[in-house]
Amino acid sequence: VAHLLAFPIMYTNLLQGLEATDTQLLEMADVFQIRPLARVRSIYLSQVLPYFEAAASLALGFCWKAGIAAEVIAIPSRSIGEELYHAKVFLDTSSLFAWTIVIICMSVLVEKGFSYLIKRLVKRIEERP
Fold first, then answer.
1. In terms of Cα–Cα distance, which of 102, 25, 16 is closest to 58?
2. N or C: which end of the chain has fewer CB within 10 A?
3. pLDDT tens column, 64-116
4. What is the distance between the alpha carbons of residues 69 and 108, in angstroms, rounded to a whole number?
5. Nearest to residue 87, comparing CAs of 74, 96, 97, 79?
6. What is the pLDDT of residues 20-65, one digit of tens each?
7. If you write DSSP's letter for every residue of 13-73 in order, what string do you get?
């Protein structure tokens, strides 16, 4: 289900990145007869990567929230969603806040870790000759 949530975000951002490609770079590639594969790698990829980073971060955040919301609705045993649900039902405010803090911390850690990996991947792609 998470991929259904992430796909439109990734698609629209990447499409916007492709549409924002500098036309002068494309004209230069035509003048110098740059091969299609080299054109994709040297022009399109560098133009789309910032949009990809933003889309990946946004999609990850939405997927994380959707996963927790699904757990609260479905209440699988031994899950964060179950703990949140029980804290809400039994008016256990301290547990509710504690689980909320856990969710926020895990979300930040996962997003920062994923962002770090994406930045390393982007750097590796841009450094290739």
1. 16
2. C
3. 888 888 898 998 999 999 999 999 999 999 999 999 999 999 988 988 998 89
4. 17
5. 96
6. 999 999 999 999 999 999 899 888 988 898 899 899 888 888 888 8
7. HHHHHHHTS-HHHHHHHHHTT--HHHHIIIIIHHHHHHHHHHHHHHHHHHHHHHHHHHHHH
DSSP string, 93-127: HHHHHHHHHHHHHHHHHHHHHHHHHHHHHHHHHHH
| Token pair for 17 | 């990145």
Chain-centroid distance of CA 29 in Å reads 31
Q: Quick one: residue 35, left, alpha or beta (phi over 0 = left, psi -120 to 50 = alpha)?
A: beta
Is residue 107 within 8 A of residue 61, CB to CB? The reply is: yes
Residue identified by tokens 């039902």 is: 89
